[in-house]
Task: structure prediction
Amino acid sequence: MSEEAKKGISDAIKEEEGALSKGKSKWEDLWKKEDWWANWLGAFLLLAGLGFFLYSSPDNMKQIIADTQATMAAEQQRAPFPTIEYMEAERQLSGLQARKTPLGQKLGTLLQRPKRWDTAPGQAFILTKEAAAERRAAAQPRYEEAQQLRVQARDRAEAAQAAAEAANFTDPALNQVADEAIEAWGRALSAESRARSAANIQAYNVIPSMIVLMVLIALLFSVGMHFMGQKLGGFFIGFPFIFALSIVAYFIAGHSFSTQYGLSYVLWAVLLGLLISNTVGTPKWAKPAVQVEYYIKTGLVLLGGSILFGLILMIGAPGIVIAWGVTPAVLIIGYWVGDKFIKLPSKPLNVTIAAAASVCGVSAAIAAAAASKAKNEELTIAVGLSIAFTAVMMFAMPALVLALGMNPIVGGAWIGGTVDSTGAVVAAGELLGPGAMYTAATLKMIQNVMIGVIAFAIAAYWATRVETRAGNVKLTFGAAMKEIWVRFPKFVIGFIGASVVFTIIYELMATGVGEVIISDGALRGWANPLRGWLFCMAFVSIGLATNFRELAKYFEGGKILYHYAFSQGFNVVLTLVLAWLMFIVAFPGVTEHLMAIR
Result:
C-alpha cells in the first residue's frame, strides 16, 4: 500500500516537472481528459437548453407576469389571507410554463421515459387509440364529478370571502372561514386538473423518441471519446445495450409498486447491472460502453445548473447554518470514527461512505470517490447503502414528525438535511405540507453546493496527508499544490461554474422571467430529464462493472454497515438539534413565513 502510494505521488510530480522542463503544454488535458469532456458536454447541453427556451418563450410572458404579480401584491394589501383573486393570479402565473410551448413540448417528447403502469406493461411504452378512448371514457364520470365539486367549492369560497369583506376583513372568525373555504376551492381545482388530464389522455408511443434520444446521446459522447483516443466502434456496438437496460430500469421504476414505496430508477439500474455481471457476466462487446464516470460526471455538471444561489437567500440564515454546518461536521467525524474505531479496510471507502451520509448520497459519493481515487466497487457500496437508507428514511421520518407533533417546518428542514436523494426529500416533505416540502427541497439544494467544497477538501487532504503519510513522502508546497490539482476532480469546476453562470443569468432576467425560462424551461424541461438518463446509464454501468466476489471482502465483520449507520445517525441527531434551534429559537419569523406557503 505504502509503496503504491509513494510511487503514485512520485510519478505525478515527475510528470509535472518533466512537462515543465520540456516546455510542454498541459493545455491538451482540456480535450484529452474525461473530466474536462464532462465539463464541455455539460456546458454545451445547458447552453443549448437555455437557447431553446429563450427562442421559444411563452406568448405575452412579460405582460402576464407583470399583471399577475400586480394583482397578487394588491390582494396581499387588501386582505389578511389569500383571496380568490390572489389564488387565480397565482395559478395563472404558475401555469406560465416554457415547457408548454410548442418547442418545449417537442423537447419533452424527445426526453420522455416509459410511462407509469400497473397491470398493463405494454402501456408503459404504447397506448393505442382504442385503449386511450377506453381510458377517457372511464375517466369522464370522475372528471364531471370533479367539475361539479369545483363549482360548489367556488360558490362557498365566494360567499365566505364576501362575508369577510363586508366586515372589512376585521373579523378573525369570518377571515378564517373564508381562508378555509378558499383553500378547499384550491384543492378542488387541483383535483379537477388531475381528472381532466385523465379524461383527455391521448394515444402515445414512446419507443421512437427513445431510439432517437439513444442515437443523439451516443453521438454526443462519441465526440469526447474520439479526442480522448478511444475506439468508437466498440462503443457504438455496446451503447444500445446500456441504454436498453436504462429503459428497463425506468420501466420497473414506473410500476405502481415502485412508485408507492419510493423504489427509484437508481436502485433498479444498479440491480440490473449487478444481476447481469454476477450471473452470465457482462458481455465483452458491451464493455466499451460501460463508461461509469463519463456519464455521471456529465450529469453532475447538469446538476450544477439546477443549484441557483437565489434559493439560499430565500430560505435565509437558518437553512445555511443547517446545510453548511452539519455537512462538514458529519463528514469529518464520520471519517474519523471509521478510521480510528471501526477501522475500515480502505480509506477511500471510508471517506466515500462518510460523504454519502453527510451531503446528498449518490452525487457526493461520486465526487468523494473521484477525489480519493476510490475503486468502482467501493463507490457501488456507498451508492447501495445510500439507496437502502433513503428508501426507509423517506417514509419513516415524516411519520415520526407527524407522530411527535413536530413543527412541519422543523420536520422539513430535518428531512432536507438527512434524506440523501433530492427526489425522496421532495416526496417526504410533501407528506408534511407545502411549507415543509419547500423547506426540505430548498435546504437539500443548498446542501448540494457542498459537493464542490468537499471534493476539493478531500483532494487536498489525500494529497497532503493520507498518501504522503502512507508513503512516507514529504512534499514541498509547490509539489503539494500540483498534486492537489492533479487529484482534484475537474468536473467539479463545471459543476460550480454551471451553478454560478445560471444563477447570474437568472438574476439578470426580469422578475418572474427567470423562473419561466431558466427554472421551468432550461432546467426542468431539458437539463433535469436529460440528467436522469445520464445517471441511469451510469448506474447501469456501475452494476455491470461490479462483481459480488470483489465486494464480499468489504462487508466482513459488518464494519461498513456500522460506519454508515453511525454517520447517518449522527447526521440525523445533529440536524434535528440545529433545525429546532434555527427555526424555533433563533428565527421564528422565517418559520411563520414558510408556514404560510401553499
Observations:
- The chain has two domains: 34-53+208-595, 129-202.
- The mean pLDDT is 87.
